[in-house]
Write a structure and sequence with these properties.
There is one protein chain. The protein is mainly α and about 425 residues long. Helix content is about 75%, strand content about 0%. The protein contains 20 helices and two strands. Strands 1-2 form a two-stranded antiparallel sheet. It is globular and about 65 Å long.
């Protein structure tokens, strides 16, 4: 009964927040539905997911109590609604399963080294446009008995997030534009693409060390790519018509529309019932973790608002060059490991750097690489929380599998910062 009710609540959350995003009404009705679904789901979480959720909620509670005791105002919307748009997108992209039966028949997955590179290319190129939904499209095709094996997780967790280094459709780029006014996209994109290529080479090398034989990958062929390409084209078209719409809102609308369009007509009624009674409740774990992550972010913000660090600039630095960018990136990666979202780090770091009058392109590259590497390495990033909840992958395993990658790609980023400074530094 609880499972079926959570399916109705998640459907209501999606519909109500879609109306809120497009019409402008309050998001509280959708938020209430999401929290009710969370409460229904929490008792049924598996051990690892439950421990992770309890850690998030416990840390958020302690931070909130500390901030409140120091006089920080508690604003309910900042604590209870920060991830509601992302959760709405999760509900929307879960409907893409309705179309997979009509798209995958007869088309086998690619194996071995070819499968590794095709999966990486699909994740990065398509994920650059349709964002997090590509993880579920690829992951749902590759999973076996509800989980993915280590090599697949390494590829999925890293290469989607690496698109943040260059994609103009990522939230990361919008944040970089906000906090690095004056950046030139044509200048920073080549460096981001070089970073992505390095991420692919490092990942392929590490998969090869584990053995690429038997690797089951996502096929870069027309039949398998029909749905993600259609979604990418639809997202681009809607963004062109309504550029002010957030990309999460566009995906939340277009994913179900395309899923229904591609859905096989035979067995349609049964498939819709499975979506409501099984697929929607299956994302309950993601609701629990992302609502907890939103609480943790609010707790960190509240705690930081009452702490006095004795100044508002970085007196040890006289300018912002490649060395300073490398140190700032290292800070972003270290705090990302413990679950601090890049947008929190960027919003706190940027005002400290601005007095140094940094090159906006170098500052933007710092933020984009910090986002792309930090979210790909940290088990507490949004995408890796989704991987953990949806495919039963433990956060400890995610960190162990990706930590060496994070170190190597960080060194590559430092080299790219140095290369940028050498090419573009003012004389």
């Amino acid at each position: 009964m609880a499972k079926r009710l959570s399916g109705y609540l998640i459907l209501a959350m999606w519909l109500l927040n879609l109306v809120a995003l497009y019409v402008g009404i309050s998001q509280w009705p959708a938020g209430i539905c999401s929290w009710l679904a969370c409460l229904l789901t929490l008792p049924f979480l598996a051990g690892a997911a439950r421990r992770q959720a309890m850690a998030l909620y416990g840390a958020a509670l302690l931070l909130g109590l500390f901030a409140f005791s120091q006089g920080a105002p508690i604003k309910p919307a900042e604590w209870l609604l920060p991830n509601i748009n992302m959760l709405t997108m999760f509900a929307a992209v879960s409907t893409l399963n309705l179309a997979t039966a009509g798209l995958g028949g007869g088309s086998g997955n690619w194996q071995g080294r070819k499968g590794v590179w095709s999966t990486m290319a699909s994740l990065n190129l398509l994920g650059a446009v349709i964002n997090l939904s590509i993880i579920f499209i690829v992951g749902d095709r590759l999973e076996r008995q509800g989980t993915l094996e280590r090599r697949q997780v390494m590829v999925l967790s890293r290469l989607f997030n690496a698109a943040a280094m260059w994609s103009p459709f990522f939230v990361a780029m919008a944040v970089a534009v906000t906090y690095s006014p004056g950046l030139q996209l044509s200048v920073i994109m080549p460096f981001g693409l070089m970073g992505v290529l390095a991420a692919m080479v490092i990942t392929a090398w590490q998969v090869e060390r584990l053995g690429s034989d038997g690797f089951c990958g996502f096929p870069l062929q027309r039949q398998a790519l029909t749905l993600p390409i259609a979604l990418a084209v639809a997202v681009l078209a809607v963004k062109q018509l309504w550029p002010a719409l957030p990309i999460l809102a566009v995906i939340s609308l277009m994913a179900p529309i395309l899923a229904l369009s591609f859905m096989p007509k035979k067995g349609c009624r049964d498939a819709l019932k499975r979506q409501l009674y099984e697929r929607f409740p299956a994302i309950g774990g993601q609701l629990v973790l992302f609502l907890g992550a939103g609480l943790l972010a609010a707790g960190i913000n509240s705690a930081l608002s009452v702490l006095d660090f004795g100044g508002h600039e970085l007196p040890v630095f006289q300018h912002y060059g490649a060395i300073e960018a490398s140190l700032a990136l290292l800070l972003m990666l270290l705090v990302a490991i413990i679950g601090v979202h890049p947008i929190i780090t960027i919003s706190g770091l940027a005002p400290l750097v601005w007095p140094l009058h940094p090159d906006p392109n170098l500052l933007a590259m710092t933020f984009l690489f910090g986002w792309g590497i930090g979210t790909g390495t940290s088990p507490l990033s949004g995408s890796n929380l989704a991987l953990s909840a949806r495919y039963n992958v433990g956060p400890g395993a995610l960190l162990r599998w990706n930590l060496s990658y994070g170190v190597l790609i960080y060194l590559v980023a430092c080299l790219l910062f140095t290369g940028y400074e050498w090419v573009y530094a003012k004389i």
